[in-house]
UniProtKB/TrEMBL annotation:
<dbReference type="GO" id="GO:0016301">
    <property type="term" value="F:kinase activity"/>
</dbReference>
<keyword id="KW-0808">Transferase</keyword>
<feature type="domain" description="Maltokinase N-terminal cap">
    <location>
        <begin position="20"/>
        <end position="103"/>
    </location>
</feature>
<dbReference type="GO" id="GO:0005524">
    <property type="term" value="F:ATP binding"/>
</dbReference>
<dbReference type="Pfam" id="PF18085">
    <property type="entry name" value="Mak_N_cap"/>
</dbReference>
<protein>
    <recommendedName>
        <fullName>Maltokinase N-terminal cap domain-containing protein</fullName>
    </recommendedName>
</protein>
<keyword id="KW-0547">Nucleotide-binding</keyword>
<dbReference type="InterPro" id="IPR040999">
    <property type="entry name" value="Mak_N_cap"/>
</dbReference>
<keyword id="KW-0067">ATP-binding</keyword>
<keyword id="KW-0418">Kinase</keyword>
């Protein structure tokens, strides 16, 4: 489960992405346009320390881009390459925001969704001691694989579209520009959201 806070972020996630996205090799969109949110979904960190959120955004008239992010209370050693930026959370304080593909908590969570249909984290607010659940904005459908490679220890991450996360001879592919899900592979993750009725391919294992 993901506990959300009614908080203010300075700068906002979208402000960070507006600056960061144009430098990515897989970026597509209107030059100089602000990033706008299309939908999002979250995974759980088993340790409960790191926020894991995938935001689907668009820059101007460009295509939908898939951007998984992790939120940490302190810098992640050796991950400067993956740093999106820092922000001040009005409840939690300073947060370091990373491209999740380079954060070790993300590949196992994504692999569980792709290979075992683990689904997304339930999102909720605490309101007067009661749990107020927020309805998901993305419908995810994972696969079922006979064998499930482990992605706990990543050997290499190759940024591109797809972004390739390699571990132990297996390859987890994160689709940066989600496309129609016409692939027949069982080990895949698809999603749909308001305005995107037909599922699109979000990730797969090969």
């Amino acid at each position: 489960m993901a506990l959300l806070h009614r908080a203010e972020l300075r700068p906002s996630k979208l402000d960070l992405l507006t600056t960061w996205l144009p430098g990515r090799p897989w970026f597509a969109g209107t030059p100089g346009a602000e990033a706008t949110r299309v939908a999002s979904y979250r995974f759980d960190d088993p340790a409960g320390e790191v926020g894991i959120e995938t935001i689907l955004v668009r820059a101007g008239d460009g295509p939908v881009l898939q951007v998984p992010l992790t939120y940490r209370a302190a810098p992640l050693a050796g991950a400067e390459r993956w740093l999106v930026g820092t922000t001040d959370h009005s409840v939690l304080g300073p947060r370091w925001v990373y491209d999740a593909s380079g954060d070790p908590v993300y590949p196992p969570a994504l692999a569980a969704a792709v290979l075992a249909d683990a689904g997304q984290a339930e999102e909720y607010f605490e309101v007067d001691g009661r749990r107020e659940v927020r309805a998901p904005s993305v419908t995810l459908t994972g696969g079922r694989a006979d064998t499930a490679p482990a992605f706990d220890l990543v050997d290499e991450v190759v940024d591109g579209d797809p972004t390739l996360i390699r571990a132990g001879g297996a390859e987890l592919a994160l689709v940066r520009r989600p496309a129609p899900a016409d692939a027949s592979a069982a080990a895949r993750l698809t999603g749909s959201w308001a305005g995107q009725v037909d599922p699109v391919l979000l990730a797969y294992v090969r």
